[in-house]
Amino acid sequence: MKFNLIGLGAILAIVSANSFATEYIYRELMANTLPLRHCDSKEKASAEAEKSYKLTIYAKKFCQTQGYGWHVEQIKDNGKLVCNECSSVENKGKFQCHIEDVVVECKRIKPGTVGMLPGKG
Predict the structure, then answer these.
(1) What is the rounded distance in angstroms from the CA atom of residue 52 to the CA atom of residue 23?
(2) Strands across the sheet with 71-77, in order?
(3) Count of C-beta atoms within a 10 Å radius of residue 4
(4) Residue 111: CB partners within 8 Å, gap ≥ 6?
(5) CB-based burial label for 73 (10 Å; 0-12, 13-18, 19+)
């Protein structure tokens, strides 16, 4: 009975060691969000550009541009707000805002660490 328990414990220890062997590749990106499509007052345009969910969506897009398997680890810097005045005559005094220099850390599973390559790992 003790040998069965010891054998089962050894097998579980070997199998569970593979789950801790996952390694990641990290990459930091700096990018800008797109300006709003429409012109609005400076207060409304800046509030719209600085919404947290928009920053989250853009961070996800920034990481996905790196290729398959890249995900957001964290947003390191929210960047700075930039507002430009609209140039058309009917939108005089209105602005389009966006965020510049957003820093995002992306991660991806390192190939070969979780059985992605047959016969290795």
Answers:
(1) 30
(2) 24-31, 102-109, 71-77
(3) 8
(4) 117
(5) middle
Rounded Cα–Cα distance for residues 21 and 68 (Å): 21
Q: In angstroms, what CA-CA distances link 40 with 17, 18, 34, 53?
A: 56, 55, 15, 20
Per-residue pLDDT of the chain (121 residues; tens, 9 = 90+): 666 767 766 666 665 555 556 899 999 999 999 998 899 999 999 999 999 999 999 999 999 999 999 999 999 999 999 999 998 878 888 999 999 999 999 999 988 777 655 555 4
Place of tokens 């990018």: 31
One-letter amino acid for residue 95 of the chain: F
Best CA proximity match to 31, nearest among 63, 53, 54: 63
Q: Is 103 exposed, middle or buried (0-12, 13-18, 19+ CB in 10 A)?
A: middle
Instruction: Tell me if the pTM is above 0.90.
Output: no
Residue written as token pair 């990106």? 29
Asked if 58 and 102 touch (Cβ cutoff 8 Å), the reply is yes
